[in-house]
């Protein structure tokens, strides 16, 4: 099954995508993570967009994604998170694959800012925490490995507001393009997950 999860930053797409991917046995593809996994000169170029809260150019993004779709674990489908982000990307995606379900996870802008400003992660083991909603036991320290937690460079309030503005202007129109169904992302993680499973016809 090929599923798109769409929603503003902080709506819980990544969390729901991981849950869904393990339930369905398909990979979770996050275009943000794909870009952040680049190294060397390419990473420097990518960071010049990401850190400012701007989108990476559509054609280049599509190339990265096409390469990922070509890997064998995508044969049974995928949960795509972070793409498409505008109508042009939606048309590009339609030209390379058929999507089965499109789900919108909605939250208010204020909630998005509250959640993202608190988001921290451990660079050593990859664990994620949120000072607002899921704090580590000791502030700034990873519960799992004791590493020092850091904030993403684009999780400053200024960059968050800019990304939300881009979401409303450029990403929202694709919800109509796909006839997306909406779930309320302000509910608990488990409730949102159950609602999504219901929508795609899977027993919780
Ligand atoms: P995310 O982790 O989804 O919040 O993405 C972080 C950043 O990666 C975004 O602010 C963009 O700079 C870049 N990015 C992620 N997905 C895309 C995409 N589909 N098109 C262009 N840039 C993207």
Compose a concise summary of this entry.
This protein has helices spanning 13-24, 31-36, 40-50, 58-69, 87-96, 109-117, 157-171, 173-178, 189-199, and strands spanning 2-6, 28-30, 78-81, 101-106, 119-121, 128-130, 181-184.
List the ligand species.
adenosine monophosphate
| Average pLDDT for all residues | 94
Q: Uncertain runs with pLDDT below 50, 5 residues or more?
A: none
The CA-CA distance between the termini, in Å, is 16 Å
The DSSP helix count reads: 9
CATH top level is Alpha Beta
CATH hierarchy: architecture? 3-Layer(aba) Sandwich
> How would a crystallographer describe the biggest sheet?
5 strands, parallel
- The percent of residues in helical segments reads 40-55%
The fourth-level CATH homologous superfamily is: P-loop containing nucleotide triphosphate hydrolases
CATH-defined fold name: Rossmann fold
Number-wise, the strands total 7
Strand content: 5-15%
**Radius of gyration, rounded?**
17 Å
SS content category:
alpha/beta
């Amino acid at each position: 099954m090929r599923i798109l999860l769409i929603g503003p930053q902080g709506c819980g797409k990544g969390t729901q995508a991981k849950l869904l991917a393990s339930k369905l046995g398909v990979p979770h593809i996050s275009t943000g993570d794909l870009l952040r996994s680049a190294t060397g000169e390419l990473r420097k170029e990518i960071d010049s967009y990401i850190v400012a809260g701007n989108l990476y150019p559509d054609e280049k993004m599509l190339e990265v994604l096409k390469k990922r779709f070509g890997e064998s674990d995508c044969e049974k489908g995928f949960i795509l998170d972070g793409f498409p982000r505008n109508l042009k990307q939606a048309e590009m995606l339609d030209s390379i694959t058929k999507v089965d379900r499109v789900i919108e996870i909605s939250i208010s802008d204020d909630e998005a800012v509250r959640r993202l400003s608190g988001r921290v992660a451990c660079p050593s083991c990859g664990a994620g925490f949120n000072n607002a909603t899921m704090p580590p036991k000791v502030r700034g320290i990873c519960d799992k490995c004791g590493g020092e937690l850091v904030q993403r460079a684009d999780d400053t309030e200024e960059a968050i507001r800019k990304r939300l503005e881009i979401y409303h202007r450029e990403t929202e129109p694709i919800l109509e393009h796909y006839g997306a169904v909406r779930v309320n992302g302000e509910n608990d993680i488990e409730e949102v997950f159950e609602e999504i499973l219901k929508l795609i016809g899977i027993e919780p």
